[in-house]
């Protein structure tokens, strides 16, 4: 076994992780039982969660089937398959492709280190390294992993913001088009419904935009509450909403739209001591079985049907005699 240089006096900061550092899950792999036990003690005392394996096959099985592992610390020279080949096989698994890997080697030669890095490992560590060096190396990896996870979370949040309507919390126009085009490209039937609130401009003009925003948010919540899993409801713009119904024919789409318009008519608000309610009209269209229709074409059909209904409603209203 390689000799180790021990530190006579260990500072507390060398052996304990910072309070805000997450507990890293480490899998240490080595056929040298004594050295493996030493590494496990050092890293456990430093605050890491450490498991061990004694060969490459066991490491592959543990990382790919045994739950979360954040960092793999693996010896180069082992019976069967060596550390570099073990890492190559592990990273063929998509679920393990981002695993942070450090090669343990008794060799101090540049050639071995370059081979490790060129083979896709993230770092290397000499088996002659001191306890402080081992801890420092693992802590450095933990900071990098923490940063990567934070960036990943921020990217997910940005993606969500980019596809979400800020006022209502439902899908925005960009998200509607992304989902709709994906469904149509897959050759699936898609029914689309375009809703428009009646006389919403009058509400804004009479009670103010804050009242109008509240109504829009409540209408969006009603849509979310009364649509099915897999349906997509989004704000198309202003007081218009779009409902995408994958694998739904137009007759079922109309039934769903009618039910939602009934739910909207049942909503009520009291604004400036005045009871307020809204209604909606809609246009429904279905993609043809040929799959040749794009989402803009489908929504244009909805739009023509919607405004045909609104024009007929207005004409009927104008023809009614004044009471």
Describe this protein's structure.
This protein has 323 residues and is α/β, with parallel strands linked by helices. The protein has 2 domains: 12-161, Response regulator (Rossmann fold, 3-Layer(aba) Sandwich), CATH 3.40.50; 173-318, Reverse transcriptase/Diguanylate cyclase domain (Alpha-Beta Plaits, 2-Layer Sandwich). 48% of the residues lie in helices and 18% in strands. The protein has 11 helices and 11 strands. The chain has helices spanning 12-15, 33-45, 56-65, 83-90, 110-118, 131-162, 173-185, 200-207, 209-225, 250-265, 295-319, and strands spanning 25-29, 49-53, 71-75, 100-105, 123-126, 190-197, 232-237, 240-246, 269-271, 274-276, 280-286. A 5-stranded parallel β-sheet has the order 2-1-3-4-5, sandwiched between helices. Strand 3, helix 4 and strand 4 (100-105) form a beta-alpha-beta unit. The chain starts with 11 loop residues before the first helix and ends with a helix. 31% of the residues are buried.
In short:
The protein is α/β, with parallel strands linked by helices. The protein is built from eleven helices and eleven strands. The longest helix is centred in the middle third of the chain and has 32 residues, at 131-162.
Radius of gyration: 31 Å
Arithmetic mean of pLDDT: 85
Secondary-structure class: alpha/beta
SSE sequence, one letter per element: HEHEHEHEHEHHEHHEEHEEEH
Q: What does the largest sheet look like? A: 5 strands, parallel
Please write the CATH class name of the largest domain. Alpha Beta
Query: What is the CATH H-level superfamily of the largest domain?
Result: Response regulator
Q: Note the overall shape.
A: elongated
SS field, number of helical segments: 11
Strand order of the main beta sheet, please?
Answer: 2-1-3-4-5
**How many individual β-strands?**
11
Number of domains: 2
Distance between the termini: 102 Å
CATH topology assignment of the largest domain: Rossmann fold
Beta fraction: 15-25%
What is the CATH architecture descriptor of the largest domain? 3-Layer(aba) Sandwich
């Amino acid at each position: 076994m390689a000799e180790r240089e021990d530190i006579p006096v260990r500072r507390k900061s060398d052996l304990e992780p910072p309070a805000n550092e997450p507990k890293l899950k480490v899998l240490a792999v080595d056929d040298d039982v004594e050295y493996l036990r030493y590494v496990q003690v050092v890293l456990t005392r430093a605050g890491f969660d450490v498991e061990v394996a004694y060969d490459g096959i066991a490491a592959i099985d543990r990382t790919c089937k045994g739950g979360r592992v954040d960092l793999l610390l693996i010896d180069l020279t082992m019976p069967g398959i060596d550390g570099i080949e073990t890492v190559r096989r592990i990273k063929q698994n998509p679920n393990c492709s981002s695993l942070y890997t450090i090669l343990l080697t008794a060799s101090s030669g540049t050639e071995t280190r370059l081979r490790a890095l060129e083979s896709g490992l993230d770092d290397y560590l000499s088996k002659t390294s001191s306890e402080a060096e081992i801890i420092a190396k693992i802590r450095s990896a933990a900071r990098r992993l923490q940063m990567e996870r934070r960036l990943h979370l921020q990217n997910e949040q940005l993606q969500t913001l980019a596809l979400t309507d800020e006022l209502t919390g439902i899908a925005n126009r960009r998200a509607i088009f992304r989902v709709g085009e994906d469904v149509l490209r897959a050759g699936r039937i898609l029914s689309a419904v375009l809703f428009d609130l009646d006389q919403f401009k009058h509400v804004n003009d009479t009670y103010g935009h804050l009242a109008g925003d509240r109504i829009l948010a409540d209408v969006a919540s009603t849509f979310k509450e009364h649509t099915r899993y897999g349906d997509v409801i989004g704000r198309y713009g202003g007081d218009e909403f779009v409902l995408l119904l994958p694998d739904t024919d137009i007759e079922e789409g109309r039934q769903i739209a009618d039910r939602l318009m009934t739910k909207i008519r049942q909503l009520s608000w009291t604004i400036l001591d005045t009871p307020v309610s809204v209604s909606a009209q809609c246009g429904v269209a279905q993609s043809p079985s040929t799959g040749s229709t794009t989402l803009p074409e489908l929504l244009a059909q909805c739009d023509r049907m919607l405004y045909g209904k609104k024009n007929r409603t207005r004409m009927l209203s104008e023809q009614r005699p004044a009471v």
